């Protein structure tokens, strides 16, 4: 039971992994909450780091130094405060999954304690630490292929980057996976760089498991070679044609994240090309027509039997398609229904389908709405009543909060079913 509570609370707090203010407030609840929150907060300590907090972070890193290291630095003229000798409450560095060498370099430069740079690097770069992301400054002169445990590499290539060292990183001769996150734009780089990049991607396509694009490329050849992808993220701009996706086949794809403006026929084609491995789909798009929305939903329930997490818009006319989706995706445990541009106007029917057809594992819900007043309390009460024989739900509403009488009635209804045990946790986040 304690592990179940830990896992549930971890999932909830982890939803706010990009909300530093909320995470800091979670630290103060009690020791149990603190022990769960610290690893999440320190997964990427550089995220949203302000200049005013840099000194505090550097002092905390210094606390991790061994006595021997501090004495060596002291002999070289560095003076530490007595507070820096206190052992930290946690081994914070062990939780770090993002090694940002750019930010570390900046911390040291602004502190004017240049000789501590190598000591700080050694805190992170050793056999005990494993990182998911590595951020490297252009003038970094250490051989990254010698980093212990180096297995994955993420390259973020923007329109300003023409540095051929990116190519050499892709071609490192050792077994690792490449996650290439890029706003790659043909025409914004020189032709030599474009050609070298594409040839390298094709040559080492078997190593690339994760790929991200924020603009449709002018050339399509290299995409067709990335058949080993397990994760794909696309974010299109208005007016772009994504014909490069027309015949794309990704049989091993597990995660699909889509945003912006990408045609539904291409998304349906990608989903159809998978071989049942897809377990997470996030389609953050609200401009598809009813027919195209239906096309995507049907592609999902016809090709994704192992789906566990789903985020998508459901048009009002397609609520009936929700039932076969729920029946086919029997491992689904988390559902996030977007609501924009009046996509769902009949939440009553939506809740009826959810209470009738939800698979056994489904217990985590997010609902987007413009106003809590959109929900009829009778409909919600019936939804909660029908959930009494199921696993208690974790429920989140993303909505504009209007502190009127109906909102108070809504919260009383939530409290009623929390006490009954139908609702395990409840969160309402303001959409404004």
Automatic annotation (TrEMBL):
**Domain of life from the UniProt record:** Eukaryota
The record, for InterPro entries, names:
LRR_dom_sf (IPR032675)
- Gene3D superfamilies, per the entry: Ribonuclease Inhibitor
The protein's name in its UniProt record = F-box domain-containing protein
Organism the protein comes from:
Rhizophagus irregularis
């Amino acid at each position: 039971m304690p592990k179940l509570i830990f896992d549930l609370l971890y999932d909830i707090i982890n939803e706010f992994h990009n909300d530093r203010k909320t995470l800091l407030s979670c630290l103060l609840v009690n020791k149990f909450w603190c022990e769960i929150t610290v690893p999440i907060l320190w997964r990427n300590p550089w995220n949203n780091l302000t200049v005013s907090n840099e000194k505090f972070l550097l002092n905390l890193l210094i606390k991790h130094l061994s006595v021997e290291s501090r004495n060596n630095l002291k002999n070289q003229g560095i003076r530490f405060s007595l507070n820096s000798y206190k052992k930290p409450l946690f081994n914070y560095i062990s939780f770090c999954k993002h090694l940002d060498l750019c930010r570390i370099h900046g911390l040291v430069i602004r502190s004017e304690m240049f000789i501590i740079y190598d000591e700080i690097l050694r805190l992170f770069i050793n056999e005990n630490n494993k990182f998911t992301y590595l951020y490297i400054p252009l003038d970094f002169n250490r051989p990254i292929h010698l980093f212990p445990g180096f297995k994955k590499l993420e390259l973020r290539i923007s329109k300003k980057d023409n540095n051929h060292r990116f190519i050499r990183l892709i071609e490192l001769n050792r077994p690792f996976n490449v996650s290439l996150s890029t706003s790659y734009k043909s025409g914004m780089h020189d032709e030599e760089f474009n050609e070298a990049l594409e040839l390298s991607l094709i040559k080492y396509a078997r190593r690339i498991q994760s790929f991200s694009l924020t603009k449709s490329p002018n050339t399509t050849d290299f995409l067709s070679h990335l058949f080993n992808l397990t994760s794909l993220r696309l974010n299109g701009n208005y007016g772009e044609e994504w014909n490069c996706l027309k015949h794309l086949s990704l049989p091993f794809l597990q995660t699909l994240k889509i945003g912006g403006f990408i045609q539904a026929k291409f998304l349906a084609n990608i989903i159809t090309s998978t071989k049942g491995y897809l377990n997470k789909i996030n389609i953050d798009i609200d401009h598809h027509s009813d027919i195209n929305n239906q096309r995507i939903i049907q592609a999902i329930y016809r090709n994704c039997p192992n789906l566990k997490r789903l985020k998508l818009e459901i048009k009002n006319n397609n609520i009936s398609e929700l039932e076969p989706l729920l029946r086919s995706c029997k491992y689904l445990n988390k559902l996030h229904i977007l609501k924009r541009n009046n996509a769902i106007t009949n939440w009553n029917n939506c809740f009826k389908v959810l209470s009738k057809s939800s698979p056994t594992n489904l217990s985590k819900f997010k609902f987007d709405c413009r106003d809590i007043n959109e929900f009829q309390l009778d409909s919600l009460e019936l939804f909660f009543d029908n959930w009494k024989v199921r696993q208690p739900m974790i429920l989140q509403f993303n909505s504009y909060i209007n502190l009127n009488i109906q909102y108070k009635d809504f919260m009383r209804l939530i409290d009623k079913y929390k006490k009954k045990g139908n609702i395990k946790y409840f969160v309402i986040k303001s959409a404004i």
